[in-house]
DNA sequence: ATGAAAGCGCTAACAT
DNA sequence: ATGTTAGCGCTTTCAT
């Protein structure tokens, strides 16, 4: 049942079949305007007849450009990175590039190995979510002149492009929404302060609260950002707030559940906003109002900025693009009429 | 701050630096045994000094083999596929191949477009999770002689390799476990019968129940396999079973929660087994006993079978590899002592 | 054990 | 408007 591996047609075969030279065929394919319409027609027929498919590898050898870009990330299994991958893959596809998936599995040596692989392949560039904040390892790529875009990690713009989501804004809109919904005693259920995202989201929350004199903001820190810890926190709460901002959706789901166990109703008694728009946010019993991060856009933009750098080269200006998060309204909060 | 894009060293540069011919350099790199140890040493020094990195694209042009394999799947964002991707990426890396991520986004034309791209790139093969059961579209690859391995979808072994998980066995071990834990009145909380996986898992459940004369098996079908529907089912249940097998973890999580609302205790009153070992299974309040599918192994094996076909060619025998699911014991069931 | 040379499939000057 | 031709960087006979 195996097909006979037919030797693929080459450009010469097409040229012969169309009765023209190889360069004409090449022109038809790459700069159609330079060639007579009728000739072009003949060539295209021959292409179709022979099912000719150009070999970009050979072309790249000649032109010096390959057509693959690397995507280096810690773990595709993490839905955040998976979404980046999806966005990046889409953008790459649209622009005719292929995306090489480099899953470093949280291992620095493997990440390094992938960098080497990308150098070998003469990848035109790479989108990378680096394992460590220390950018030294990236030099392997840099010194080879391979453009790169950092994702989910800002970088001084003079050093290169980067894309990330504004977590301060995210915290702010989350709490602003709670305020808009009438909450005044707001609790931030946060992860460890040392996590930059957590610190930023809290800072945003503070900014929002400052705009309302009568509003108060409290904070409780969960050891881990899981459903179980969210539940635990709900159980231990002495004074119930009327609004809770959980810095991720697992905590939020757990909190909702823990409150339900105590007979506290969401959103009637406590309104809850989560963060991340993970699957769980919409699956949970009381669906979660949450902050959505445009993660796919992150991936898409990263690739596009990369290609701009690749194609524009000289005129390209590095950019640290920061995306705005958005609010997804669901059942765990109750917008006041007219808001 | 941009590095000066240094023109990469070529094999000629190395040859010159080492005072040998290019073919010797090539031999040192590819068939070291053919070259004098001392010469090899000199060459290797030159390679290091110039930071020479071979260009597999150029090599491939000569040898006819590329070093990239395609991974075509409907959506990396789906954790099942993401896990396949992770396994595949690891295997590809270990074997020195690069993995091209082709996320078809559930769109047939895009899937087709990726097939064309893989043909262009002369990919050595592809691992594909096809969008439709209809394999016609795969012919684009087949007729070009590009070996492929189907993932998560069995295929008659004479047509090619495939890897999948045995859902019947999965259903069987899930229910067998409930029986072992003392449950006798077992309810299957299933998804639509038309979904092959659901049908298979139920069939496995039946097999298990048949081994115990006194055991009974019921079934209820959820419209969607979500937490919300799981909860709904728990609320509507008239006669409580003493064991429940939910054919995915969302249903299981919802069921647990719905039962809790009614004051029914898991696992004391009802023991619950889920399926899939999604993140949610371990995050939920009562952690779920569930059936784990070795999804990463699926991806890994797919790539390895592919490379066997690529490298062995003649002696390669197609194989429909079926993986066994396993049970993950957590809090929602209570193994009897000694079991 | 080593080297010379012929391509792999394509593009891009340069000619015509 | 079309054709001729010289490589891109590498592997691989075939000589030496």
Low-pLDDT stretches of chain A are none
Structural class of chain A: alpha/beta
How large is the radius of gyration of chain A?
26 Å
Biggest sheet architecture of chain A: 6 strands, parallel
Q: State the helicity of chain A in percent bands.
A: 40-55%
Number of strands of chain A: 12
Q: Helix segment count of chain A?
A: 13
In quaternary terms, these chains amount to homodimer
Mean pLDDT of chain A: 91
Principal-axis shape of chain A: elongated
Order of helices and strands of chain A: HHHHEHEHEHEEHEHEHEHEHEHEE
Largest interface (CB within 8 Å) is between:
A-B, 68 and 67 residues
> Which percent band covers the strand fraction of chain A?
15-25%
Describe this structure in words.
- Chain A is an alpha/beta fold and 339 residues long.
- Helices cover 43% and strands 17% of the residues of chain A.
- The first copy, chain A, contains 13 helices and twelve strands.
- In chain A, strands 2-1-3-4-5-11 form a six-stranded parallel β-sheet, sandwiched between helices. In chain A, strands 7-6-8-9-10-12 form a six-stranded mixed β-sheet, sandwiched between helices.
- In chain A, helix 5 links the parallel strand 1 and strand 2 (98-103).
- The longest helix of chain A has 18 residues, at 295-312.
- Chain A is elongated.
- The model of chain A has no long low-confidence stretch (mean pLDDT 91).
- At the A-B interface, helix 4, helix 5, strand 2, helix 6 and helix 10 of A face helix 4, helix 5, strand 2, helix 6 and helix 10 of B.
- Chain A binds a DNA duplex (16 and 16 nucleotides) through helix 2 and helix 4.
- Chains A, B: It comes from Streptomyces coacervatus.
- Chains A, B: Pfam families: LacI (PF00356), Peripla_BP_3 (PF13377).
């Amino acid at each position: 049942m195996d097909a006979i591996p037919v030797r693929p047609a080459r450009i010469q075969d097409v040229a012969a079949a169309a009765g023209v030279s190889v360069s004409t065929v090449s022109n038809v394919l790459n700069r159609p305007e330079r060639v007579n319409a009728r000739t072009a027609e003949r060539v295209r027929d021959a292409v179709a007849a022979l099912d000719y498919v150009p070999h970009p590898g050979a072309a790249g050898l000649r032109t010096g450009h390959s057509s693959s870009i690397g995507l280096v990330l810690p773990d595709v299994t993490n839905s955040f990175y998976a979404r980046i991958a999806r966005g990046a893959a889409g953008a790459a596809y649209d622009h005719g590039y292929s995306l090489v998936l480099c899953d470093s599995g949280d291992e620095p040596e493997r990440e390094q190995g992938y960098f080497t692989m990308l150098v070998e392949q003469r990848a035109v560039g790479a989108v990378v979510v680096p394992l460590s904040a220390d950018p030294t390892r990236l030099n392997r790529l840099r010194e080879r002149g391979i453009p790169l875009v950092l994702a989910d990690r800002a970088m001084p713009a003079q050093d290169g492009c980067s894309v990330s989501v504004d977590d301060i804004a995210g915290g702010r809109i989350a709490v602003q929404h709670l305020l808009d919904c009438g909450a005044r005693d707001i609790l931030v259920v946060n992860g460890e302060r040392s996590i930059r995202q957590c610190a930023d989201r809290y800072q945003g929350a503070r900014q929002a609260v400052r705009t309302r004199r009568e509003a108060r903001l409290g904070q409780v820190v969960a050891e881990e950002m899981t459903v179980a810890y969210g539940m635990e926190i709900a159980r231990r709460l002495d004074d119930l707030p009327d609004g809770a901002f959980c810095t991720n959706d697992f905590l939020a789901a757990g909190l909702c559940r823990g409150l339900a166990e105590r007979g506290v109703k969401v959103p009637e008694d406590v309104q809850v906003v989560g963060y991340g728009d993970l699957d769980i946010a919409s699956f949970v019993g009381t669906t979660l109002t949450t902050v959505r991060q445009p993660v796919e856009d992150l991936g898409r933009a990263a690739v596009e900025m990369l290609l701009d750098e690749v194609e524009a080269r000289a005129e390209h200006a590095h950019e640290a693009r920061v995306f705005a998060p958005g609010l997804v309204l669901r059942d765990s909060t109750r917008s006041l009429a007219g808001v």
